[in-house]
Amino acid sequence: MAYVEGFVAAVPTANKDAFIKHAELAREVFHDFGATQQIENWGDDVPKGEHTDFYRAVQCAEDETIVFSWIVWPDKATRDAGMEKMMADPRMDPANNPMPFDGKRMIYGGFEQVLAKGR
Question: Nearest Cα to 15, choosing from 81, 74, 102?
Fold first, then answer.
C-alpha cells in the first residue's frame, strides 16, 4: 500500500495566494521525485476543541488559517529517497521558494496506509 506524508500548519490568512503558489511549485518537485498525489486543503470548518485541536497543535493565531495537507508516495522507500532529493533541490531553497508560514510550528509525519477504499 501507499505511504502518506501528512502536514498541518498555520498560514497567515493574507498569505493564501502565496501558500497556493508555494504548494504548486512543491508539487512539481514531489512529482519529479516519485510522489503520486499531493492534496492541499485550506481550513473552512475547523472547530476549536475543549481539550485539543488543530489550532493548539500549531499555535495558530487569530489572523491565521489551518491548512491540512498530504502527499501520497508509492511506498516508504520512494518517500525517503524523494524527501532527501527534495531537500537538496534548488527549487525548494527558501531563497527561491520561501515558505509563506512559520515552518517551526508545522507538524508532520509519515504514515503507513492500512486502508484505502473508494467508490
Answer: 102
- Reading phi first (left if > 0) and then psi (alpha if -120 to 50, else beta), residue 8 is in beta
State pTM to two decimals: 0.90
Give domain status of residue 118, yes or no: no
pLDDT (tens digit per residue) in 33-80: 999 999 999 999 999 999 999 999 999 999 999 999 999 999 999 999
Residue of 113, 116, 114 lying closest to 5 (CA atoms) = 113
Total tally of structural domains belonging to the chain: 1
In angstroms, rounded to a whole number, what is the distance separating the alpha carbons of residues 54 and 46?
A: 8
For 5, counting Cβ atoms within 10 Å of its Cβ (0-12 exposed, 13-18 middle, 19+ buried), the class is buried
Q: Where are the beta strands (DSSP E) in the chain?
A: 3-12, 37-42, 64-73, 107-112
Structural domain harbouring 94? 3-112
